[in-house]
Design brief:
By secondary structure, the chain is an alpha+beta fold. The protein has a seven-stranded antiparallel beta sheet with strand order 3-4-5-12-7-8-9. It has 20 helices and 28 strands.
Length: 683
C-alpha cells in the first residue's frame, strides 16, 4: 500500500514529501542487519516480503522519471522529479535494451547523461526551478536553448516544448549529455549575483587560437576558467584544453581520448589523460574512456598509472559508487602487471625504456657496449642490430615503472577500503609499502644522490641521472628525508637538467647527452612534455607534503613558465609536439597538438593549489608567487560543488575584498590575507 501513497505524492509533484516519507518509513528496515524488507512495519510477519518493495519502482519511474509512453518502450519519457536528491544513477531494462541514466542536481547546473537504446524515441525533460527555465542548455557540448528560446541544432535531438515543469526535447537512440545552467540561489547572508567571477567568453576570446564554435561552446561548458598576470601560463592553459578537446573522439563504444599525432588510442599517456580530464565538467568523456580500457584493450602495452588515475578522478568527483565498480577490473590489471613484469627475486618491476614510452634512453645506449658502436656524422649506427639494441634494449628496474606500481597498489587499497573489503585493502597496502621500501633500498644511488635505473643483466646502475629520477615524488614514494631531497639540486644545475626549454631528460654531463641517433624519439637530452609534467607534479608534491629547503614555490612557477614557453612553434603559435630541443627554439618531432602530457591539472593543483582529497575537506595551497597582484580559478566542479579560488592583492579586481578567498557555490567559505594554505569543510 505504501507504493500508492508515494505515487500519489509524486503525481501531485510533492517529491520532497515522497522522499522524506520513504526515508522515515523504511529507516528501521534499512538500518536492520538483515538486508531484506519486512512484511509489516513492526517486523512481524515474514522477513523477506516482496510487496514491501513496491515503493522502489517509484524511484526509477518518478525520481529518475523513466517510464514508457507507448507499449514496449518504443517511446518513453525521462522527466525527473529529484526533490532533495543530488544524484541518481539507474539502469532501466526494457525490451528495446537497457536505458542508462545518470542525473546530477547541483546549485548552478543540472546534468542528465542518457544512453538510449535502438528503435526508441525518448522525451527528455530538463526540470525547471521555481517555474524558471534554465539560462542555457547544451547537448554534447552544443547549445540547444539560450535566453528563453531554442537555439542551435544537434543531430538526433529536437526541441519539443517549454511546458509548465520541463523544457523538453525529442531524443533519438545514442549517448547524450545534457547540461543546464541555472543561476544559484544566494545562501543566507550572501548577496545574489553571478556564480562565476570571470567572464568565460571574454577569457576564451583573449586566449584561444582558431577556436570554432563547437570548440568554444565545449570549452565554455566544460572547463574551469583561469587568469593570472603571467600571460604565457594563462594562454597555454586554454590552448591545452583546446588540444584535449581536439583529441576527444567518439568511438563505437563511447568517448575515448587519443594520444594525438596520428597514434590513436594508446595507454602510454593514459595516466596524464585521467589527471587532466578529471576537471572536465561532463563526466561522460572520462567515464567512457575508463570503460574502454576494461572492455578489451590492454592497458599494459605501455607503463602507466591506471588505477591511480581512476582514483584521482574519484578525488575530484567524489563518486564512490563508480570507483568501487572499477575495483575488480583494476585488481585484474594489477595481477597482470605482477604476472608479466615483477621480478620476485629483486622485489621490483622491470621493463625496457621503450615500453615506458622512452625509446632511445640512456639504458639502451649503454646496452651491448654502445660506446663501441660505429657512429657517423648523421648519428646512424652501423647495423640494424645496434639500432634495435638502443631502441629495444636496456631492460631494467626503472624508477618510473616502479613508482607507477606503488601508486596503483595504493589506489586499489583505497578503493577496496571504500568497498568495505579490508582484506584486499590490507594486502595491497602491504604490497605498496614493500615495493616502496625496495625502491629506496635498490634504486637510490648514494653516490649520485638520485634515483637511477639498474640494468637487469648485471644489476649495475646506469651511468647518469635521468629525469625519471624525479618521478617517485609525483607518487609520494620517497620518505620525507633530507637525503632524498638533495636530488632536486640537479634540476637547476647547469650540468644537470637546467635548460632554456627544459628540463632535459638526461643530465648534460653524461657521455650520451644529445648523442645523435636516427630516431625521432630521443630521450637522451631533449625536453619532453610527458616527463616535464610528471616532474612538475612531483615538485608540487615536494612543496606541499615534504619538509625540505631545496625547492621553493618560485622554482615551481619558473619551471611551469618554462614548460608553457616551450609549447609554441617557432612562429609563436601555441603548439605541443613530442619532444623539443632543450636549448633551441624548435621541436624535434612532429605530432601536432600532441596529447601525451598534462598541463591544466598542474595549474589547478599546483599553481592555484586545489589539492584533491577524499575526506570531505577542501584544501587549497597556492604555489603562486607572493608578488602576484591577482589570480583566479573559477567554475571548478569539485565533489558536486562549484568552487572559485581567487587572490586579489588590492581587492579591486574582483570586488570581493583583498586577499585569498574561496567561494563554494558562490558563497565565501574561507579567506586569508595572504597566499597560504587553507583547509575548510565542504559541507
Amino acid at each position: 500500500m505504501e507504493k500508492y501513497v508515494g505515487e500519489a505524492l509524486y503525481q501531485m509533484r510533492f517529491e520532497e514529501d515522497a522522499i522524506a516519507r520513504t526515508k522515515k518509513r523504511f529507516k528501521d528496515m534499512v538500518e536492520d542487519p538483515k538486508t531484506t524488507l519486512w512484511e509489516l512495519w513492526n517486523k512481524a510477519g515474514t522477513q523477506n516480503h516482496a510487496w514491501s518493495g513496491g515503493f522502489l519502482t517509484l524511484l526509477s519511474q518518478y525520481g529518475a522519471g523513466v517510464a514508457p509512453v507507448t507499449p514496449g518502450y518504443g517511446t518513453y519519457h525521462v522527466l525527473p522529479q529529484m526533490g532533495p536528491l543530488k544524484r541518481i544513477k539507474t539502469i532501466v531494462p526494457s525490451v528495446k535494451g537497457e536505458i542508462a541514466l545518470e542525473l546530477r542536481n547541483e546549485p548552478a547546473e543540472f546534468s542528465l547523461d542518457l544512453v538510449s537504446p535502438k528503435d526508441t524515441t525518448a522525451l527528455v525533460g530538463i526540470p525547471k526551478r521555481e517555474g524558471a527555465s534554465p539560462a542555457r542548455i547544451t547537448v554534447n557540448g552544443k547549445p540547444v536553448w539560450e535566453n528563453g528560446k531554442p537555439t542551435g541544432t544537434v543531430d538526433g535531438v529536437a526541441f519539443k516544448e517549454n511546458e509548465e515543469h520541463y523544457t523538453t526535447f525529442s531524443v533519438q537512440p545514442g549517448t547524450w549529455a545534457f547540461r543546464a545552467e541555472f543561476s544559484p540561489a544566494p545562501r543566507s547572508g550572501e548577496n545574489s549575483g553571478r556564480l562565476r567571477v570571470l567572464d568565460g567568453k571574454t577569457v576564451l576570446m583573449t586566449n584561444t587560437r582558431n577556436t570554432d564554435d563547437v570548440a568554444a561552446s565545449w570549452l565554455l561548458e566544460n572547463v574551469p576558467f583561469f587568469e593570472c598576470p603571467n600571460r604565457e601560463i594563462e594562454e597555454i592553459y586554454y590552448y591545452r584544453w583546446w588540444s584535449y578537446h581536439k583529441n576527444l573522439r567518439k568511438e563505437k563504444a563511447g568517448w575515448a581520448v587519443h594520444e594525438g599525432g596520428g597514434y590513436g588510442i594508446t595507454p602510454c599517456p593514459l595516466g596524464h589523460h585521467l589527471y587532466e580530464g578529471r576537471w572536465i565538467k561532463n563526466r561522460v568523456y572520462l567515464d567512457d574512456y575508463i570503460r574502454y580500457w576494461f572492455a578489451g584493450d590492454n592497458p599494459r602495452r605501455y607503463s602507466t598509472w591506471f588505477a591511480d588515475g581512476c582514483y584521482a578522478q574519484y578525488l575530484v568527483d567524489g563518486d564512490s559508487v563508480k570507483i568501487v565498480s572499477y575495483l575488480k577490473g583494476l585488481i585484474a590489471n594489477q595481477e597482470g602487471w605482477e604476472r608479466e613484469r615483477f621480478d620476485s627475486a629483486r622485489g621490483l618491476f622491470r621493463w625496457i625504456p621503450d615500453r615506458d614510452g622512452m625509446e632511445a634512453s640512456l639504458a639502451g645506449f649503454e646496452a651491448g657496449e654502445a660506446d663501441k658502436f660505429q657512429w657517423n656524422t648523421a648519428g646512424i649506427v652501423g647495423d640494424k642490430f645496434q639500432w634495435n639494441t638502443v631502441i629495444y634494449g636496456g631492460d631494467g628496474y626503472r624508477p618510473s615503472l616502479n613508482s607507477y606500481m606503488v601508486a596503483d597498489m595504493r589506489a586499489i587499497a583505497a578503493i577496496a577500503t571504500l568497498a568495505g573489503d579490508q582484506a584486499v585493502a590490507g594486502a595491497y597496502t602491504r604490497k605498496a609499502e614493500a615495493l616502496r621500501t625496495r625502491m629506496q633500498q635498490e634504486l637510490w644511488c648514494p653516490e649520485k644522490n638520485f634515483f637511477l635505473q639498474r640494468h637487469s643483466q648485471d644489476y649495475r646502475f646506469v651511468s647518469g641521472r635521468e629525469q625519471i629520477g624525479f618521478f617517485p615524488w609525483a607518487f609520494h614514494v620517497p620518505d620525507d628525508n633530507s637525503k632524498y631531497a638533495e636530488a632536486w639540486r640537479q634540476l637547476q644545475d647547469s650540468q644537470g637538467f637546467k635548460a632554456k626549454y627544459g628540463p632535459t631528460t638526461l643530465e648534460r654531463r653524461n657521455t650520451y647527452f644529445l648523442k645523435p641517433f636516427k630516431h625521432k624519439c630521443l630521450w637522451n637530452g631533449p625536453s619532453w612534455p610527458y616527463s616535464t609534467s610528471v616532474t612538475l607534479a612531483a615538485m608540487a608534491n615536494l612543496l606541499n607534503d615534504y619538509k625540505q629547503s631545496v625547492v621553493t614555490r618560485d622554482d615551481y612557477v619558473a619551471l611551469l613558465h618554462t614548460y608553457a614557453a616551450t609549447q609554441r612553434d617557432p612562429d609563436g603559435k601555441p603548439m605541443v609536439r613530442e619532444n623539443h630541443h632543450p636549448d633551441e627554439n624548435g621541436w624535434l618531432a612532429k605530432g601536432g597538438d600532441y596529447n601525451h602530457s598534462r598541463y591544466c591539472d598542474l595549474v589547478i593543483t599546483g599553481l592555484v593549489g586545489l589539492r584533491p582529497r577524499g575526506d570531505g575537506m577542501l584544501e587549497v595551497n597556492p604555489l603562486a608567487p607572493a608578488d602576484w597582484e591577482y589570480f583566479c580559478l573559477d567554475g571548478v566542479v569539485y565533489h558536486g560543488r562549484t568552487l572559485t579560488i581567487l587572490y586579489d592583492r588590492s581587492g579591486n579586481r574582483y570586488g570581493r575584498g583583498a586577499g585569498l578567498r574561496i567561494l563554494i557555490d558562490g558563497a565565501e567559505a574561507a579567506r586569508a590575507a595572504t597566499i597560504q594554505r587553507i583547509t575548510v569543510a565542504l559541507e
